[in-house]
Amino acid sequence: MDTQGKTAIVLGATGLTGGILLQMLLEDKRYSLIRLFSRSSVGYEHPKMEELLVNLAEPETYREKFRADEVFCCIGTTKSKTPNKAKYRAIDYGIPVQAAVLCRENGIKTFIVISSLGANPKSKVFYNRTKGQMEAAVLKQEIPNTYILQPSLLAGKREERRIGEWIARQVMRAMNLVMVGPLDKYRSIYPEQVTKCMIWLANHKYEQQRIPSDEIRKIAHRHG
């Protein structure tokens, strides 16, 4: 193993996008250590992977171990999975913001987080408002290389059944054919495109910090 490679932290590796990102990072020769912080195990071992099972809501318990060249935050939940708004906010707002604070405190210069298309701190929609407030709080930390991805509906398959999302994906699949020009950013996107974009951004400079779904697809194409 190349001991001179980079170290990356992944939050949310047990989820759909985080799991795909983890596999890509493990196969990427630029990285020698992938450090996972999560509540549950991904269920396998790898010589490049270090898994730390922690309560992400208690950053003081893992602050000293939170050290890397880059942090990838794929944390997120849904209304159906977490109907309690306080718990929902603790996950979708609290964990990414706490991670950004730790990046600033520990001198980590690259932080890449998944938000959502439509994020707006003043939105009347709780989901969009929470994401928008998270984005603002993350940017306030002034981490040199901060990138916020705003994907539209993900087209990948999830392990748990989400009927509402399944219906939405079928509708989006049909509408993708007519979503061109200004509507392009609303087309559904594959999690592999999101993860390719994240890795490309971690290894290149980019001019903007908030990256909408159509731009994610373009950057992902650069990754190959």
TrEMBL record:
Domain of life: Bacteria
Organism: Zeaxanthinibacter enoshimensis
Keyword Transferase found: no
InterPro entries the UniProt entry points to: NAD(P)-bd_dom (IPR016040), NAD(P)-bd_dom_sf (IPR036291)
Protein's recorded name: Putative NAD(P)-binding protein
Upper classification of the organism: Bacteria, Pseudomonadati, Bacteroidota, Flavobacteriia, Flavobacteriales
Assigned keywords, A-Z: Membrane, Transmembrane, Transmembrane helix
Pfam family, one: NAD_binding_10
Membrane-spanning residues: 6-26
Domain NAD(P)-binding positions: 12-137
